[in-house]
Amino acid sequence: MVTPTSITELDPADPSFVANPHPTYARLRANSPVQLVALPNGTRFWIITGHDEARLAMSDHRLGKDPGLAAEHLRSGPNPLLSEKRPFGNHLLTSDPPDHSRLRKLVNKTFTVRRISALSPRIREISDGLLDDLTGRAQFDLVEDYASLLPTSVICELLGVPYDDRGQFRTWSTAVVSPNGGSAEQRDTAGYELRTYLSELIRLKAVTPADDLLSELVAVSEDGDRLSSAELLSMAFLLLVVGHETTVNLIGNAALALMRNPEQLARLAADPGLVDGAIDELIRYDGPIETSTWRLAITDLRIGAAEIRQGDAVLVALAAANRDPEHFPAPDLLNITRDASRHLGFGHGIHYCLGAQLARAEARTAFRRLSPMLRDHELAVPEEQLEWRPGLLARGLFRLPLRRITA
Ligand code: HEM
C-alpha cells in the first residue's frame, strides 16, 4: 500500500497538460523530486521528476517491470493502471533479470553497430525518396507525409518485411500502437492479424533466412540457448511498435521545436556538423517519450525522502528530468550547441533503449535535409490548433501541417 503523505492530483487528459506538460512537471519537481500523485479516478503512484532521482530509480534492481509485481488495487477494478493482458507475451520491457538479461544478451548479438551502420545508406535513400515527393508541394503534413512513413519503412527493412506487405503492416501497427479514433475491438483485431502475420514471417525466415534482423534473431544462440517462437514473436512486435511511434514523434516534435526557435534552425541549417548534438538537445527539450514505462517496487525502498512500499507503481517523468535546472541551466531554452548528452530521453540502466543508435541514425538523416527545408516553410494552421496525442508515455503531434512561404 501507498504511504499517506500529501498527494497531488495529476490529470493526464487536461488539455493544457496535453498541450504542454512542462510547467506541471516543473511545479511537481519544485515541490519534491519524488512524490505521490493521484489520477482523477483516485489511482495513486509515485512520480519522479528530478534528474538524479530518475537515474537512481532506473538503475535500482528493487524496481521491477513484471506487471504481476503490482499491488492488487493497481491491477483490478474498472480502470486498472496496469493491464494483466499481455497479447504479445513477455518481452524486454515486461521482464526482470535473469529473464531480461538473457533476452537482452541474445538480441544485442543481432542489433549491432555494424547492422545499423550498414542500414544507413538505405535510411538515406528512403528518407530522400519521401522528401523528394514533398518538394514542390505548396502544403504537406510533416507527420503524416514524412515522419510516419520513414520509421515503418526502416523497421520493415531491418526486420525483412517484404515490400508488398508494408502498407498493410503499417495499417496494423498504427491501429495497435496509436489508434486514432478506432474502437477497442478494431485494435484487438489489428493486433491479432499482426500477430498472425509476424508468426508466419518468422516461420518463413527459419526456412529461408535472408540478410535481415529477423532471420538473425531466429538463428541467434548463446551457449546453446535460443529464443523460443513466442519470444521471437514478442521481440519482433516490440521492435516494431517501439521503433515506430518514437521516431515519428521525435521528428515531429523536433521540427516544431526548431520552427518555434528560428535562430536555432538557421544555425543547424547553416552547419550540418551540429546535427548530432542538436538531436540530443531536441530529445532533451521535447523528446518523444515523456515518461518511462511502469516500474513496480519488488520490496520496500527509499528514493530521496520517499518511502516506497512493495507493490507501489513508479513512473519516471523523463521530460521532467531532462529539464532539471540542476543539470541543464536555463532548461526551457532550446540551445542546440549545449552539451545535452546526459539527457535521459533514451532511459538509463538495463532497459536503456536498444534502438538508440537506429533512432539517432534516422533523425540525423532526416534533419540534415529537413533543417534547410523547414526554413522555407511555416505552419499552415494557427499554433493553438496543433493537437498532441493524449497519455503520459508518448509525446507527439497528430499532424504538423506546413506550407511553403511564398515571397
Ligand atoms: C526515436 C527515439 C526513441 C526514444 C526517445 C526511445 C526511448 C526509449 C526509452 C526511454 C526506453 C526505456 C523505457 C523504460 O526504461 O521504461 C526505451 C527502451 C527500448 N527501446 Fe527505445 N526509443 C526510441 C527509439 C527506438 C527504436 C527505433 C527502437 C527499435 C527499433 C527502440 C527499441 C527499444 C527497446 C527494444 C527498448 C526496451 C529495452 C529493454 O527493456 O531492455 N527504441 N526506448
TrEMBL record:
GO terms for molecular function: heme binding; iron ion binding; monooxygenase activity; oxidoreductase activity, acting on paired donors, with incorporation or reduction of molecular oxygen. The keyword Metal-binding applies. Coiled coil: none annotated. Keywords: Heme, Iron, Metal-binding, Monooxygenase, Oxidoreductase. CDD domains: CYP107-like. Gene3D superfamilies: Cytochrome P450 (1.10.630.10). The keyword Heme applies. Pfam families: p450. SUPFAM superfamilies: Cytochrome P450. PROSITE patterns: CYTOCHROME_P450 (PS00086). PANTHER family: CYTOCHROME P450 YJIB-RELATED, P450, PUTATIVE (EUROFUNG)-RELATED. Belongs to the cytochrome P450 family. This is Cytochrome P450. It comes from Lentzea xinjiangensis.
